[in-house]
């Protein structure tokens, strides 16, 4: 059943077509793109039409459906030999969020079960829909688990966009905030603007406004003062990849917030579904960190804001060590003090 404060969907599959809400245009215009080919989905992920770890996993799953459909339509029973280029493009579209390759691996598992002389499209479409809808129900579950540990009178700072726009719907960190708000546990919400893509000001502020939830924006560099002045007691963020030991890659600036939070006695919560956990990597040092173009730093809304010829360092994620994290919330439950190793106990069948 749909929750309250849950009005947005960034990805739709309708009438055999994939629609993506163009997040580069928000909050100024609300436009959907219709995508017909897997390579268009790969480009949409790379170019930030769709972003946020769970959302790019879902988009990649539907991209795989488009790849399989095209191969089956044009090559008939030889479709298997004609999907690899599309799968490779989807897989390489962004490197840090593990949800992308998690979704593609699940699509491959389903493809392996399809008998010869069978139309593969219904099977992969059903799985993509399942990945999409499961993400939303997992977010509802995480919302409850996270709100349970927040307590009353929560004063929260969040970073980047982890809401409906970053997922199938409802959100991870923002899902916890939505649930806690509905339950009356929230006193105030602050959102970092999140340079350079401004996911906080363009997306999080807009999303919360659509749902009638009050939020106050701040420049990223004001977070230290916010904590020093005791205006918050929780930082709540999402994740792009969590390694087996509990280290967390998330939007650049997350690590700085975690260090500041530790110094100021502010609690730090990470909210992510199990599709974000990479059990194959032992620690955050092993996570590939995406670097994007210098122009994302030297320009703002199309205007140049730095001297011509200046270089810029633009890593778009950083790694927060597990010892700075008070709670990791997944759809299976919450792990308090995850540096003690409790993440594995929630997922005993992972090796
Ligand atoms: O570069 P983006 O906008 O894809 O980065 C998104 C984030 O860092 C989010 O915090 C993360 O994906 C979790 S979203 C539920």
Automatic annotation (TrEMBL):
<dbReference type="InterPro" id="IPR027363">
    <property type="entry name" value="M1Pi_N"/>
</dbReference>
<feature type="binding site">
    <location>
        <position position="94"/>
    </location>
    <ligand>
        <name>substrate</name>
    </ligand>
</feature>
<dbReference type="InterPro" id="IPR037171">
    <property type="entry name" value="NagB/RpiA_transferase-like"/>
</dbReference>
<comment type="similarity">
    <text>Belongs to the EIF-2B alpha/beta/delta subunits family. MtnA subfamily.</text>
</comment>
<dbReference type="InterPro" id="IPR042529">
    <property type="entry name" value="IF_2B-like_C"/>
</dbReference>
<feature type="binding site">
    <location>
        <begin position="51"/>
        <end position="53"/>
    </location>
    <ligand>
        <name>substrate</name>
    </ligand>
</feature>
<dbReference type="InterPro" id="IPR011559">
    <property type="entry name" value="Initiation_fac_2B_a/b/d"/>
</dbReference>
<dbReference type="GO" id="GO:0019509">
    <property type="term" value="P:L-methionine salvage from methylthioadenosine"/>
</dbReference>
<dbReference type="Pfam" id="PF01008">
    <property type="entry name" value="IF-2B"/>
</dbReference>
<feature type="binding site">
    <location>
        <begin position="250"/>
        <end position="251"/>
    </location>
    <ligand>
        <name>substrate</name>
    </ligand>
</feature>
<keyword id="KW-0486">Methionine biosynthesis</keyword>
<feature type="active site" description="Proton donor">
    <location>
        <position position="240"/>
    </location>
</feature>
<feature type="binding site">
    <location>
        <position position="199"/>
    </location>
    <ligand>
        <name>substrate</name>
    </ligand>
</feature>
<keyword id="KW-0413">Isomerase</keyword>
<protein>
    <recommendedName>
        <fullName>Methylthioribose-1-phosphate isomerase</fullName>
        <ecNumber>5.3.1.23</ecNumber>
    </recommendedName>
</protein>
<feature type="site" description="Transition state stabilizer">
    <location>
        <position position="160"/>
    </location>
</feature>
<dbReference type="InterPro" id="IPR005251">
    <property type="entry name" value="IF-M1Pi"/>
</dbReference>
<comment type="pathway">
    <text>Amino-acid biosynthesis; L-methionine biosynthesis via salvage pathway; L-methionine from S-methyl-5-thio-alpha-D-ribose 1-phosphate: step 1/6.</text>
</comment>
<dbReference type="InterPro" id="IPR000649">
    <property type="entry name" value="IF-2B-related"/>
</dbReference>
<comment type="function">
    <text>Catalyzes the interconversion of methylthioribose-1-phosphate (MTR-1-P) into methylthioribulose-1-phosphate (MTRu-1-P). Also catalyzes the interconversion of 5-deoxyribose 1-phosphate and 5-deoxyribulose 1-phosphate. Part of a bifunctional DHAP-shunt salvage pathway for SAM by-products.</text>
</comment>
<keyword id="KW-0028">Amino-acid biosynthesis</keyword>
<dbReference type="GO" id="GO:0046523">
    <property type="term" value="F:S-methyl-5-thioribose-1-phosphate isomerase activity"/>
</dbReference>
């Amino acid at each position: 059943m749909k929750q309250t404060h849950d009005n947005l969907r960034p990805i739709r599959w309708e009438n055999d077509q994939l629609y993506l809400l163009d997040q580069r245009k928000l909050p100024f215009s609300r436009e959907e793109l219709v995508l017909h080919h897997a390579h268009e989905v790969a480009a949409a992920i790379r170019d930030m039409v769709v972003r946020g770890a769970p959302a790019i996993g879902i988009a990649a799953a539907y991209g795989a459906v488009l790849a399989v459909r095209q191969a089956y339509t044009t090559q008939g029973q030889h479709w298997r030999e004609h999907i690899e280029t599309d799968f490779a493009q989807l897989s390489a579209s962004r490197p840090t969020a593990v949800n992308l390759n998690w979704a593609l691996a699940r699509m491959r598992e389903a493809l392996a079960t399809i008998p010869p002389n069978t139309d593969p499209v219904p099977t992969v479409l059903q799985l993509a829909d399942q990945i999409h809808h499961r993400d939303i129900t997992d977010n509802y579950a995480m919302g409850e688990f996270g709100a349970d540990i927040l307590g009353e009178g929560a004063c929260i700072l969040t970073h980047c966009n982890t809401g409906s726009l970053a997922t199938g719907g409802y959100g991870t960190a923002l899902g916890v905030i939505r649930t806690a708000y509905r339950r009356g546990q929230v006193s105030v919400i602050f959102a970092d603007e999140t340079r350079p893509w401004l996911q906080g000001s363009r997306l999080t502020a807009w999303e919360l406004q659509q749902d009638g939830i009050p939020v106050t924006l701040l420049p990223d560099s004001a977070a230290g003062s916010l904590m020093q002045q005791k205006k918050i007691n929780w930082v709540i963020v999402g994740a792009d990849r969590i390694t087996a030991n509990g280290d967390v890659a998330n939007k650049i600036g997350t690590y700085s917030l975690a260090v500041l939070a530790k110094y100021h006695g502010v609690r730090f919560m990470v909210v992510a579904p199990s599709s974000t956990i990479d059990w194959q990597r032992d620690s955050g040092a092993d996570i590939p960190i995406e670097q994007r173009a210098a122009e994302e730093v030297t320009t703002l809304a199309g205007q140049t804001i730095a001297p011509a010829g200046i270089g810029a360092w633009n890593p778009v994620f950083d790694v927060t060590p597990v010892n700075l994290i008070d709670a990791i919330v997944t759809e299976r439950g919450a792990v308090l003090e995850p540096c003690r190793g409790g993440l594995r106990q929630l997922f005993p069948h992972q090796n």
